[in-house]
Design brief:
The protein has helices at about 20-25, 30-45, 105-120, 135-145, 165-175, 190-195, 205-210; strands at about 1-5, 15-20, 125, 155-160, 180-185, 195-200. It is an alpha/beta fold.
C-alpha cells in the first residue's frame, strides 16, 4: 500500500495518507502514452512558419535566356530556387487542419497510469492549506524548501470550483520559478510528465484519486 506524506504550509510533516494498491494497479502501453504526449504537443503548435515554392513566386514567366546557342544550361523561369528571390525547396510550410484527435479512453488511461507511477515513486505530496487566507509567496517558498522540493519542477493541483484558493495560489506561485498551478479537471498527461514533483491540496485529493478509480 502506497503512502502519501501530508505537510502544512510551514513544511512540517503532519501525517500520512494510505492509498489502496487496487487504485494503483493501472497498466498502459508505452507507445500509447507517447502518442498521447506527441498529440498534445502537436495540437499546441501554431504552425505559422511559411515559405513560398516556385509556383507561388510572383515572377515573370519569361525564360532568363534562350534555350540554345549561348553555351549555358537551359533555364525555365526566374522563380526557380537557384535564382535570387526564387522559390524555397523543402522549406517550412503551414499545416492546415493538423489537429490530432486523442481517443478519450486512451487519454484517461494515460493520465491514470502517469498519476499512479508518480505515487509509486513518492513524487506526490499532500498540502494542507487552511492557513492560507491570502496570497503569500514567502510561505510557499518556505514550504517547498522544507519539504525538499526546492528547485524541482513542481505542479500544484487544486480542487475545481474554489475561486478564492485558485486566485491565492496563482498569485503566490507566479513569482516562483518552475512552479505551476492547475485545477484537477484541467490536468493533462504532458504537464504530469513534465513535472518532477506533484503537490496536491488536501481538498483536491479525493478528486484526483477519483481519476484512478
Amino acid at each position: 500500500m502506497a503512502t502519501l506524506k501530508k505537510f502544512d504550509l510551514s513544511g512540517k510533516e503532519i501525517g500520512t495518507i494510505q492509498i489502496d494498491d487496487a487504485l494503483l494497479d493501472v497498466s498502459a502501453h508505452s507507445q500509447m502514452i507517447k502518442d498521447y504526449i506527441v498529440a498534445i504537443r502537436n495540437n499546441g503548435r501554431q504552425w505559422s512558419a511559411s515559405t513560398k515554392g516556385r509556383s507561388e513566386i510572383n515572377r515573370t514567366g519569361k525564360k532568363p535566356h534562350p534555350q540554345k546557342g549561348q553555351g549555358r544550361s537551359r533555364q525555365g523561369c526566374l522563380a526557380a530556387p537557384q535564382y535570387k528571390g526564387g522559390g524555397v525547396v523543402f522549406g517550412p510550410r503551414p499545416k492546415f487542419d493538423q489537429h490530432v484527435r486523442i481517443n478519450k479512453k486512451e487519454r484517461r488511461a494515460a493520465i491514470r497510469f502517469i498519476i499512479a507511477e508518480k505515487i509509486k515513486e513518492n513524487q506526490v505530496k499532500v498540502l494542507s492549506h487552511e492557513e492560507m487566507k491570502e496570497p503569500k509567496t514567502k510561505m510557499l517558498v518556505n514550504f517547498f524548501d522544507k519539504s525538499e522540493i526546492g528547485g524541482r519542477r513542481t505542479l500544484v493541483l487544486g480542487e475545481s470550483g474554489s475561486a478564492l484558493i485558485h486566485e491565492s495560489l496563482v498569485k503566490s506561485l507566479r513569482n516562483i520559478p518552475k512552479k505551476e498551478y492547475m485545477v484537477v479537471p484541467q490536468v493533462n498527461g504532458y504537464e504530469l510528465v513534465r513535472c518532477q514533483e506533484l503537490v496536491v491540496l488536501d481538498s483536491a485529493l479525493d478528486e484526483l484519486l477519483s481519476m484512478l478509480g
